[in-house]
Fold Peroxidase.
Amino acid sequence: MYQFTRMHESTKATRYRSTALVAVVEIIYTYGASEIDALIPLARSMASFTLALLSAVLLLCSAVQAQLSSSFYSRTCPSLPNIVRSTMAQVVNKEPRMAASILRLFFHDCFVNGCDASILLDDTATFTGEKNAFPNINSARGYEVIDAIKSNVEAACPQTVSCADILALAARDGVSLVGGPNWKVSLGRRDATTASQSDANSNLPGPSSSLSQLVASFAAKGLSARDMTALSGAHTIGRAQCANFRSHIYDDADIDPCFAAARRRECPSAGGDGNLAPFDLRTPDRFDNSYYQNLVAKRGLLHSDQELFNNGTQDKLVRRYSVNGKAFAKDFAAAMMRMGAISPLTGASGEIRLNCRVVNK
Ligand code: HEM
Ligand SMILES: [Ca+2]
């Protein structure tokens, strides 16, 4: 759709340019070379008209393309990267898990109608939002961290930076603060004015998903199976609740029996639904490639995790990441940039929310 509009505009520009050229040639032909001097001002004004037209078309193109850019706030809010980074550093220093929780918030935002901070909206009389959808209720956390960053950003650059961009930056900083890769965050997203609980319920993959369901849910967002496997490496940090991995440790066969027995101690077969367990027992708060080493050892915590290494299409890639932390870091960063570019609101769409929890009045 964007592509079509762009081609259409540039065809128009070429047509205008050749019409101007033909006109100049016709004038020379009709009036003779001796009168060309008199025609120079006319030719000049036609040339500048053509130039103006071309630049107008170029401007239109960039608006239509609606591209994000890492320098989006470099003039309007130069302190933005430092504010986000220093707030995240304080928060993660106090509670390392928060790096994981903010990363997950970003994933859950982007997969539901794009990276538009829809997940941050509280329910209202006119819509039921995403916070109480099944994948998020009693599970997604870190909203108050985004509030704190937002209020620091508002103090420095009022009404300028979207909550969606703050979330994208905070997720990146959290990962890099706990030892993960760094990447350039593209900016210029705007905030949604509505949110949908049912979209959150249907677009986010669940812990009992099969490999083909996982691949399909990422494909629906324009992400490849490789992206899916790299992004799942986020489960190298953070915690999960017993209710989400109980059936894997009690009922599945594709699991190391010692690992299953150890995990059952923190997660009884009945009760204790909210008991927390780290995804990665070895380095629970360090963003490394041990998630993949765990999968190869059949020590994935969720059923969906172990699906990536269970004699399927992703086995080879999982093995590669398990022995090559650099390859994982590189692919994770690239996939995060692609995930962060899912259907952003740009230009005049959406708004710059003043409070990340509520739509502007
Ligand atoms: C591939 C499909 C995925 C499934 C089925 C899935 C599912 C889950 C589940 C069930 C939990 C535990 C929640 C709880 O018990 O409260 C969780 C936690 C987490 N997920 Fe995923 N996830 C997936 C992909 C991702 C992706 C792509 C990311 C980020 C790029 C991510 C980041 C995280 C993080 C960091 C945590 C820990 C959060 C915390 O400790 O607060 N997940 N995920
Ligand atoms: Ca969203």
